[in-house]
What does this fold into?
Amino acid sequence: MSAPLHLDLLKDEERLSSSPIRLHFMLPMLSSCLALCLAVWWLLLCVHTHSQIQLRQELLQTIATLTPVHASVLASRAQEEEALAVVRQLTLYKNSHIRFGTALSNLTERVPENIQFAELCIPTPQPPPTDPQHPATAPTNTTEQVSMRIAGRTAGERSSESVDTLLATLRSPAFTNLFRTAVIPKGAFRQDIIRDPNNRDTLLFEISCECTPRRFE
It folds into this structure.
């Protein structure tokens, strides 16, 4: 018995694929979906870009509006800092104030009768250094040396003793809160030969006192 013969008369283009997905149908659909996705993405990008542009414009307008206000605030803060620096400096100078009144009033009761004051001077100390970039700030040092110069004349047999008594008075506990040291400089105790060269009873004296330092704190 001979084997059966199968005759295939279909052309290649007439053959149907066994797959349920048809390429000639899916390719246009995929292309359409891809084009639609690209269109949606482009639309969203345009919307986002437009919103960002509007936001940028609004921010620029807000910055332009607030710029004068910001400059005014900065100027006010700078003035505030300068004012606070001045107040702080004045407060430090107030705290560093040395009160001579009480001590000098007590001194008048203890000066020997034959002593006459000719000069009582508090030399101006050197100005304390300040920050050159901020001249309104307080002094950079915390203390300032203060001195007092007392000059006068005395006459009589006990002139030297009277000056020594005055010097001891300035060194006494009643004045140590004001004067740290009191000395007669070399050559500052001499005869008054300028007014009357023949009068050797009148003596001139000078006493240099170192006061308690001013403390800027």
